[in-house]
Every structure is written in C-alpha cells, then in structure tokens.
Amino acid sequence: xxxxxxxxxxxxxxxxxxxxxxxxxxxxxxxxxxxxxxxxxxxxxxxxxxxxxxxxxxxxxxxxxxxxxxxxxxxxxxxxxxxxxxxxxxxxxxxxxxxxxxxxxxxxxxxxxxxxxxxxxxxxxxxxxxxxxxxxxxxxxxxxxxxxx
Amino acid sequence: xxxxxxxxxxxxxxxxxxxxxxxxxxxxxxxxxxxxxxxxxxxxxxxxxxxxxxxxxxxxxxxxxxxxxxxxxxxxxxxxxxxxxxxxxxxxxxxxxxxxxxxxxxxxxxxxxxxxxxxxxxxxxxxxxxxxxxxxxxxxxxxxxxxxxxxxxxxxxxxxxxxxxxxxxxxxxxxxxxxxxxxxxxxxxxxxxxxxxxxxxxxxxxxxxxxxxxxxxxxxxxxxxxxxxxxxxxxxxxxxxxxxxxxxxxxxxxxxxxxxxxxxxxxxxxxxxxxxxxxxxxxxxxxxxxxxxxxxxxxxxxxxxxxxxxxxxxxxxxxxxxxxxxxxxxxxxxxxxxxxxxxxxxxxxxxxxxxxxxxxxxxxxxxxxxxxxxxxxxxxxxxxxxxxxxxx
Lengths: 149, 392
Hints:
The complex is a heterodimer of chains A (149) and B (392). Chain A has one helix spanning 20-27, and strands at residues 10-11, 31-35, 42-43, 60-63, 66-75, 89-96, 102-107, 121-129, 136-143. With 149 residues, chain A is mainly beta. In chain A, a hairpin with a 6-residue loop joins β2 and β3. Chain B has helices spanning 29-44, 64-71, 90-103, 117-120, 147-162, 167-180, 195-200, 228-234, 270-278, 295-304, 313-316, 319-322, 336-340, 346-357, and strands at 9-16, 20-21, 53-57, 78-82, 108-115, 131-132, 203-205, 208-209, 217-227, 239-247, 287-290, 369-374, 381-387. The A-B interface holds A 3-4, 7-15, 18-19, 43-46, 51, 70-77, 79-83, 86, 88-89, 91, 93, 102-107, 118, 134, 136, 138 and B 124-135, 137-146, 148-149, 152-154, 156-157, 160, 202-207, 251, 254-258, 262.
C-alpha cells in the first residue's frame, strides 16, 4: 500500500537530464545522490556544478538507504481533494549520514500518529508506481525497529 | 557612510485598494494595481503622469510598460523586478526604488504589488494530475505542495534546536488579530480572536494551526517614493528610507530543503547590514512590521534582527509585549498578513510608513524608527527601516 492515494502529479526526470541518475536509481531500489568527483563534496538537490570547487564533474554515488529524522511535519489540511482521505500524513526531512548529512524528503510509512522524534533512525522503503505512463519509484521512510536492550 | 541610500529618498504617498477575500475582487488584477497607484499619487499630491519608475517583486504580472502606458505618464526611466521568493521582495522593492532615485535613474518611483487569485489561481491549493519535474518532483509526490507545508518543518526544527515555545506563535497571531479590530480596512475587522479559539483551531500542518497561517486575498498596494528634497516640498512628515537589505544566506535556494542553516528566517546575513546602514540599533526601533507568512517565521525574524534572542524569546514574544500602543515591541499594527490582508507584504510596508507619519489605526506614540521585513524563510528575504526627519 502506498503512502498517499493515486492522482497526485507524477514525477518525471527533468528534460535537461540533471536528476536522471536519481530517478533511474530509485527504480532499481537504490539511493543515488550527487558527489563531486573532484573535491568529494556531497550536494543535494542536484546542481550542474559543485558549489564548493565549481567543477562540472559532479558525479553520483550510491548511498546506504538509511538516515536520521532531521525535521518533520504532520499534515492535517488537504490542499487537494485527492489528499483528503490520507490526512493526517507525515512528511519527514531525513539527513543521510552516508552522504555528509544532505537531506532527502519522504513520507513516514505507517500510522501518522506513531511515536517518533528528531534524531530517530529511519530506513528507506522504495515505493513503486508502475501503473502510470512513466513508471517511477518514490523513496519513503520507515522507522528502524529498536532492539530490546 | 557614502555608499548608502540612507535619507536620500522617502515615501510620500501610500495607496491600497479595498482588500478582498481571495477570488472576490470585482476588478482584474491590473485594475487593482492602477487603483492602488492612483490612490498613492493622490495621497502624495502628485500627478500619476510624473511616475517615471516602477519596482515590484515576486514576478508581478503587471508590467511597468503597460502601467506607464495606461497612466499616460511622460517617460519610463526605470523598471525593476525582484525575482521569486514569494513576498520576500516586498521591502526590497522599496529599497530598489530608493536606490534608483539616489542614483539619478528616476525621480518618482512607485513600488507596487497586485494579486487577484480568482483570476490567476490560489496560493494555498495544490494540484492533482499531470506530471511534475525538477525540484518540485522531490516534494509534491509526498503531498508537500503548499507554502505552509514548505515552511512548517523549519519551525519544528527551530523548536528542537532552541527550545522555543509554541506559545510564541500564538502571541504573534493574537497580536495581529487584536490590531485588526481597530483597522476598518482589515479583512478580520470585527472578527476578534482569543486564546481559546486559537488553541481549539484545527491544525493545517503541525506546528501551524489555522490562525498561524496568512490569509489569501485579492487587492493591490503601492507606495510612491521621491528624493528627500522633493519629499520635504510635498509632505510635512515624509517616511525617509534609512536602509534596505536583501538577505539570501549560503545556499538558501538548495532544493529538497537542503539549505545548511535550516531553522532560519534567512535574515542572519542581512540584518547586521540593515542596522549598520540605518545607523540605528534594534533598541531604537519603535514599531515592527514582520511578515507573517506563518507565525513561526515571525519568531525567527524577531530573533535574527536582534529584537530578542534565542534565550529570552519565550519571555519577550508575548501578547502584552506585542500590542500597540504600550507594548515593549509593538508588532504588525495593521493586523498584518494574518488579519489585515495578505497583500504579499506590501501592506506591511504601507503600515510601517503610516507609523512614521502618525496615522496608523494602532498608532504607537512618537515613532521615529519604523521597521518592516518580508518573506521569512524564503530563499531571498528583505527588510527596510524608515525614519522621521528627526533621525536623519
């Protein structure tokens, strides 16, 4: 089951190709982010040039699909009728330790009222959308189960 | 300081249309802008045909060439746009107008903004269907599409990093509604708000309740600027521009919420220059208009401009401190974007001018230094300080 109902605008890679590696990666259930091949600086969202050294060889690397909650919001008001049955839902801003803390968005899988906090560890869930003209896969997040101590 | 607009230009006229609920304007947006400009010229006592410069922001749709032609003005010498960032350019539009006058590019510049959301679409609504690409493709599929949803997480992070209380958000909302009850122009005139009603109001997106979010309106506003010398001929109390700054921190436009310093109103870079250019300190400011897209952005703005700090924000940002005439920090004295009208910030500029002139509906006594900012949390925000003749 997907985090949100069908009918929202569907993401397609930019015609200029800037983010093609990201969207191709999620289809393979992999998280790929930009990393400068010259100075090794991570950056996200994608840019044409490295903001640190101005190399155009920004490149891409696969990162482990784990992160920590950097911030969050719980949405109660549907800004489009499609979202009404889904409210409330949670959007997470997740920092990726494997990529120097750059941040990736996504929904929190499961009940919107589940207990969680900034700093909690989360794991990516790759949510396939195959029944659309241009299939895509979203990166969603679920809490990493805490082991009993 | 030689490289400065300080005291070189002044606002001599303000104009506003009737403010309407979004979609309710009987006039097209262009007509609203014309009416606001004509009202500002009448207020200034100058002919609209004297306007030779235009300054706006947020990619306003009403082109200077069209306005100039419609008004039959003699010559168009300056047209200026502060791109993007929502209402973040409202104060910048005044700064750019003053800069044009100080540089000799134009003599009489109007800063304006018009909105007709029925004609052109609602700010607070998302869309369904179709495809989306680029930076929005990284958010919209997660149901992250409205301005409230774009900025709520910054405020959550502010609470986390600095132990700011949500009570500060309520204080900002209550102060705006309190002031609107004295302002017949305000959409929320005769619609008071009390603490219980605020507390019982529905969540839009946590941590924002309904009353933490700006209105959505149709209307237009305009201010007319001329040189300080001309201003003294036209008015016995011009609102001189002491300073104006745009403020876009390091990588402020990084998509997918990747600005490194996240829990910020975007004013940390601009605020020190703003006060230095004006030659005043936050303690000298008599009254504050701080753009409320959302109340949490106001809290960040007040801290980052030095009206309080992270440690004492919970004690300073209280209803009693924020209300005119005798609060320690009178805030949003027209009702602002929450309760007067969401005129994309230019209404706050008008109110900052009124406070210097002494004709606000919630006048603070003896205002000599009047502060206004615009667009907290956006990529490029802006702020301005107006002053009376006494502080030049």
